[in-house]
Amino acid sequence: MADPTRAAEIDLAPIPGKTYFSIDREWREEFIYFLMVDRFSDGVDRPAPTGAGRSAGVDTPDAFYGGTIAGIRRNLDYIAGLGCTAIWLSPVFENNQNSYHGYDINNYLSIDPRFGTKQDLIDLVEDAHSRPVPIRIILDVVINHSGDNWSYPGGFRYFYSGNQQFGFGDFRRADRPLPAELRNPEWYHRRGEIGDFDNSPENQFGDILGLKDYANDDDPVGSEVINTLIRAHAYWIRETDVDGFRVDAVKHMGELAAARFCSNIREYAYGLGKRGFFLFGEVATPSDDIYNRYIGQNTSQSDGNRTVFFGLDSVLDFRLASGMFGDENNAPLRDVLTGARGPQTLFNRLEAQRDRALNRGEIGRYLVTFIDNHDSFWQPGGRFPAIADDDQVIAAAGFLLCALGTPCLYYGDEQGLTGAGGDNQMRQALFDTAGDRSLLNPQCRIYQEIAKIAAVMRSHQALRFGRMYYRQISGDGQNFGEPFGTTYTLAFARLLYPQEVLVAYNVSDQPRHDCVVVDAALHPEGSTMSFRYGASGDTTVQKTNNGIHFVRLELAPHQFVVLE
Asked: Whose CA is closest to 401, among 378, 426, 371?
């Protein structure tokens, strides 16, 4: 059956006889693997390296390289072996020219033929769902803007200027964009390219480079735009049974438009019998207040009025991942774990979260945590493995898996890829068409150790649901305080009554012998805590003269451990 070309043609009735997938597993329990479809695998069986060493990624042209949806399906064992239980795909809808990344969409109703077919996506989802431990599939969706599907008058680049609306030139193709309702010049803001990405109205009305911003305001036109995009994306839930959407460029949308989209998509998934359809978004900002405007029942507009819709379930935690915002309250995790900055930013970050949830555990519902992704603008040093040794890369993944939030690993970090520079350099391939080799090596030490930590997370409820507290340390077993500087043991606890799991990491490149506080009510003096990852054996709980209970940890440089 041919793909629809208009939103009005889309049949949203459940497919007769189909049972849609649903699972009783919270999203904060998942371990997400984020991959660029074009760069992961082309499905060709190629020899992979053996041994524990890391691999250099395959540099590619800034264009389509050959990765496919079928290639992902062929390598589900590799992703599952890493411990991942969800896969986030870069956008798969039909794109313009050489936009291998998927964000330059010209047809929301068809899979880009360079990635495969709708049936390929259906098959991927079915195979992922049918595994012994089901894997959920998340699509990356772009509803803030269309691709570069039309030009301004004269064919020149136009730039934002005082909220001036510019004229409309021409659509670049007579048969695009699709659905055809999007071929309406009034459905676009037409303000030219954004220069200021952080302040309204420019950051919500302007185009992102050549990608044309939708007029998704709270008015009749905006309602038509959002309703069309809702139908177009509900279509893919009906057809393929996907489990969630990652919503791109959310902070460039109005809060009402984002919340309307999320509420209607969520309701549609419920109507199919899908529970817990996951909607998380990209909100690249240093402000928790802006996060709040887009998440859940608290969504509110910039004018202070509340929406009547339930917005995103969660947001990507840029504040944890990135030092791009340049303030001491931000927590650039990569800099802390490599010793480039002290840990105070992490402590500040957790303390600031307390007002956003019922307890320190529930906040994990609202954040998707990461150390790397596909954009270079916030990580000038490149991928984390480019600035970190293997133990530090393992510790970073361990932190994500054991701390609050839904952990998300960027493809290739498990192999130690070191791409740095521009966006394309951050998106190296895991297969080499010229050299006929694959880099999907499950024997790589980084891959193996991440899989072990993921198994510990999966077997310990406290690491998925528990409250989180950073722990004080001491060198002499008597005087305790928060660590500082760049040579110390970073430790935190996850508490899910009556269980405490302790996570510790030696930031230093020298051995450490630090004492770490544990919960006195749960760990009497003389009891033991056992290593579950990173070491073997037990350590005895001791007590100071003033009643502090602690364990002494002997950690090698950059050693990461988990105890209970």
From this structure: 371
Instruction: Give the side-chain half-sphere CA count within 13 A for 63.
Output: 3
Structure tokens at 387: 């600035």
3-state class (DSSP) for residue 503 = strand
Helix or strand or coil: residue 104?
Answer: coil
Rounded CA gap, 144 and 159, in Å?
18
Q: Is 363 in contact with 315 (CB distance < 8 Å)? A: no
pLDDT, tens digit (0-9, with 9 covering 90-100), for 4-27: 999 999 999 999 999 999 999 999
pLDDT on residue 392: 98
Check pLDDT > 60 for residue 141. Answer: yes
Bridge pairing between strands 86-89 and 467-470: unpaired
The three-state secondary structure class of 368 is: strand
Amino acid at 181: E
Instruction: Supply the DSSP symbol for 211.
Output: B
The token pair at 436 is 């006929």
Task: Count CB atoms within 10 A of the CB of residue 54.
Answer: 23
- Kindly report the CA angle at 284 between 417 and 412, in degrees rounded to 5? 15
pTM of the model: 0.96
**DSSP secondary-structure letter at 356?**
G
% pLDDT > 70, the chain? 95
Place of tokens 């030009």: 151
